[in-house]
């Protein structure tokens, strides 16, 4: 952890920078778009390319893991230190669709280096962030003089993240023994900004359901029957309206049970971030903040659960009017969950609550899809402290903390492997994930290399 | 009003029964389906056929009134008594679509006389009920020995009722002078049942609107932003939920102002009807009655206004889930109105109320379509008493009172002409309006003839 080794890491990275970027560019030329069947072969080619490159990097074992969909890549480089902890790095090698006509200034699959940025689909999400691990572990070995990493290093790089990871949990369960780790590091996230390096400490979980409301056996005349039978669209609306109280707290009994309230220290950490609400609203394409009383926007999206309507429908939605009482209505709800909430328990609470809210004469059905657990790493977790130290050395500045309001397959790793999940990402909001002209900042990409070079030593205690 | 004249009317009708039914069958063979453009020529042919038949009946002036859509028929037979009141009869000559494959036992446009019923599309709705006026006025003349009716008789038979009467109000306004009448008689409704003859005394009015709710400029991620910006689908649902209080009374300030509350006498009249709630629920294809507290089902649908959701929509409505905060949502509302409520005033009340209910950060737009006024004839109105007497003579039993929960173009006649609207219909619920195997009961059809034969004399004071 000396300045000398920091400088040595930088020197090593500088010496290999060109080859590193050339290699990454080669990978970015493979249009591994998992959502488009005509790119299936490209996704397989991307997996093969990565497996070969990891072998060349020094990983002793590399393997294509097949799924019912696109393949993942698994690689292992075990430490010769029998007491070394085991780290599993998660990322993905598939990318979002991209076409010049979407507004790209250049071919999205022909990387362009310009003004310190590398432009290409997947540059930030997620090939760049996967790839910094290849140079990072080499730098770690070079400056420590080791022949094996100070940690047992495992990489699991899936091929269907941009398609919703439909086979990921099955994959993790099938290979749970080999994936076993003391800590999982997810490299598929971002930082606050170029000037405010941060580490993410948690993601919200998710429970999703669809509720259908059955009224008359068919649409009936709102004149002949209006006012005298229950209307399923009204029932759906009343259920949605009853989800929150006047303080925008969720009214479902037991919903908040088990949630750790935000501590003053955590709120203080959130408030240290240079949050610009007007700018955030522009990102949210919204006109006003809104939510649970007494909380800031960051507290609301990072540390509190939600109940949102994702879709609602019933009756006549075409042009003009149609004077009916609809036969049925439906609502799709999603609940973002925070640490202390379990999707299975929320499913039961919601199911019970809905049953009490549907009026006589209206039938209902509620269906949940598979839930996602929240993950949260305590600020004092030793592995998190290692990440903070490693980032601090790479960035030369104080590392602050964020969380992520969304949910992801990382939670499957936490669930199945029983290991804490940490997030190490160097992407910034301007990188344009899923958008035209995606890029990665070369300086930050190399900070990612530098961070991992320090991190394996820190975690391995050397 | 003697038994002698009652008997004479019956004898006259019996003598002309066969020719009357043959003529009606000819008309029913014309498939005047206004909603289907390939039947446009049939609708015109139906108008021509009726105009010719009315001329043959004795109407001194018959005319095709053209509209921007299908033609109406107007006919006049003025009284030679200069003090005779003027009556305008309303009906329609177009019919609902019908095809054997919908479940008809025979060709819907080839009338079949069977078991005292005449089966054909339009038999009850509305050709049969228009056509009884042709024989009715002849019987009136025959038994009174008059050469002109005791009332100035006008018929307006429109051709677009089954398509929503899109040009009807324009038509009435354009010809208001010629249509002027002391009373309007609508022959396009029904009775309670074969054994409970009734007269309808009113219809509800209608105000309809669509409200759109604008949230984020595009769908946004419910993880990244959920819980911190307003959701337009939630806003739509909350608005709908706020429409009613716990007693299912509408909460919009001023909504009930000006409504005449039901009198005990009126409630008593409703309760005299042999209403079977279980049977009614089967008709409503619903499982439970529901509505404003302290009222019966008939009171709710006949005498009280409503606020119903006809359609609601927003966000993702396809299969599976999509974790978004929708960009927009919409709701279509219709308000049935009762006497004392004016659609224009309700439009203003709803608009003002909605504006106070939409949360900060959500934009909204509200659009009303043209409203329909309610109509209600006081039970002691002399013309209504005439109808009750005439029906009583034809049916030989007590005439009870109903109302109609729906709304119709009759209100345009009331509005434009400033004349009270009465309803004289002999159809029964089993006639199958808009359904396969529509029929009319021949006995009731002839009771219609008989009623009008008495009615013109009663109204004309002879």
Q: Main interface pair?
A: A-B, 81 and 81 residues
Largest beta sheet of chain A: what is the strand line-up? Answer: 1-2-6-3-7-17
Main structural class of chain A? alpha+beta
Q: What level of helicity do the residues of chain A show? A: 25-40%
Ends apart, CA distance between termini of chain A: 8 Å
Fourth CATH level, the homologous superfamily of the largest domain in chain A = Zn peptidases
CATH architecture name of the largest domain in chain A: 3-Layer(aba) Sandwich
What is the CATH third-level topology name of the largest domain in chain A?
Answer: Aminopeptidase
Shape of chain A: elongated
Ranges of chain A where pLDDT stays below 50 over 5 or more residues in a row are none
Quick take:
The structure is a homodimer of 462-residue chains. Chain A is built from 13 helices and 18 strands.
Task: Explain what you see.
The structure is a homodimer of 462-residue chains. Chain A has 462 residues and is α+β, with helices and mostly antiparallel strands. Chain A folds into two domains: 3-203 and 375-460, Aminopeptidase, CATH 3.40.630; 205-259 and 305-372, Alpha-Beta Plaits (2-Layer Sandwich), CATH 3.30.70. Helix content of chain A is 35%, strand content 21%. The first copy, chain A, has helices at residues 3-28, 40-57, 127-144, 168-174, 176-179, 232-242, 264-271, 277-283, 297-303, 343-357, 382-395, 410-417, 442-460, and strands at residues 61-65, 72-77, 86-92, 112-114, 117-119, 152-158, 183-186, 198-203, 205-214, 220-221, 308-315, 324-325, 328-337, 363-372, 375-376, 400-404, 421-423, 439-441. Chain A has a six-stranded mixed sheet with strand order 1-2-6-3-7-17, sandwiched between helices. In chain A, strands 11-13-9-14 form a four-stranded antiparallel sheet, covered by helices on one side. A three-stranded antiparallel sheet of chain A has the order 4-5-18. In chain A, strand 1 (61-65) and strand 2 (72-77) form a beta hairpin. In chain A, helix 3 (127-144) packs across helix 13 (442-460), helix 4 (168-174) runs parallel beside helix 12 and helix 11 packs across helix 13 (442-460). The first copy, chain A, is elongated, with a radius of gyration of 25 Å. The mean pLDDT of chain A is 95. Chains A and B meet through strand 9, strand 10, helix 6, helix 9 and strand 11 of A and strand 9, strand 10, helix 6, helix 9 and strand 11 of B. Chains A, B: It comes from Streptomyces beijiangensis. Chains A, B: Residues 202-359 form the Peptidase M20 dimerisation domain. Chains A, B: Keywords: Hydrolase, Metal-binding, Protease.
């Amino acid at each position: 952890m000396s300045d000398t080794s920091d400088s040595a890491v930088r020197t090593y990275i500088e010496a290999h920078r060109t080859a590193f970027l050339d290699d990454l560019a080669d990978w970015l030329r493979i249009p591994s778009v998992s959502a488009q069947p005509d790119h299936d072969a490209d996704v397989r080619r991307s997996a093969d390319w990565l497996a070969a490159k990891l072998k060349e990097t020094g990983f002793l074992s590399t393997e294509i893991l097949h799924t019912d969909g696109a393949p993942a890549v698994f690689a292992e480089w075990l430490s010769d230190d029998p007491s070394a902890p085991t780290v599993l790095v998660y990322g993905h090698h598939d990318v979002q669709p991209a076409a010049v006509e979407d507004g790209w200034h250049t071919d999205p699959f022909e990387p362009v280096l310009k003004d310190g940025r590398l432009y290409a689909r997947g540059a930030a999400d997620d090939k760049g962030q996967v790839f910094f691990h290849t140079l990072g572990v080499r730098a770690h070995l070079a400056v420590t003089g080791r022949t094996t990493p100070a940690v047992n290093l495992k990489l699991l790089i899936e091929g269907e993240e941009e398609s919703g990871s439909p086979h990921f949990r099955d994959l993790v369960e099938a290979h749970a023994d080999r994936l076993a780790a003391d800590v999982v590091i997810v490299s598929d996230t971002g930082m606050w900004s170029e000037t405010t390096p941060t580490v993410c400490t948690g993601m919200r979980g998710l429970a999703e359901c669809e509720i259908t409301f059955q009224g008359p056996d068919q649409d009936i005349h709102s004149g002949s029957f209006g006012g005298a039978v229950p209307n399923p669209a009204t029932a759906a609306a009343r259920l949605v309206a009853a989800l929150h109280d006047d303080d925008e707290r969720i009214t479902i009994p037991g919903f908040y049970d088990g949630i750790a309230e935000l501590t003053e220290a955590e709120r203080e950490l959130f408030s240290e971030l240079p949050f610009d609400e007007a700018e955030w609203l522009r990102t949210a394409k919204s006109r006003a903040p809104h939510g649970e009383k007494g909380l800031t926007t960051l507290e609301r999206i990072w540390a509190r659960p939600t109940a949102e309507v994702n879709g609602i429908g019933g009756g006549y939605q075409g042009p003009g009017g149609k004077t009916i009482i609809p036969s049925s209505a439906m609502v799709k709800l999603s609940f973002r969950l925070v640490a202390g909430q379990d999707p299975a328990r929320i499913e039961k609470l919601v199911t019970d609550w809905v049953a009490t809210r549907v009026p006589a004469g209206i039938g209902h059905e509620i269906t949940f899809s598979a839930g996602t657990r929240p993950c949260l790493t305590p600020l004092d977790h030793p592995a998190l402290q290692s990440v903070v130290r490693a980032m601090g050395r790479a960035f030369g500045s104080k590392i602050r903390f964020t969380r992520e309001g969304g949910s992801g397959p990382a939670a499957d790793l936490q669930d199945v492997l029983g290991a804490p999940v940490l997030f190490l990402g160097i992407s910034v909001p301007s990188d344009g994930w899923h958008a035209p002209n995606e890029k990665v900042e070369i300086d930050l990409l190399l900070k990612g290399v530098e961070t991992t070079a320090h991190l394996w030593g820190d975690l391995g205690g050397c």
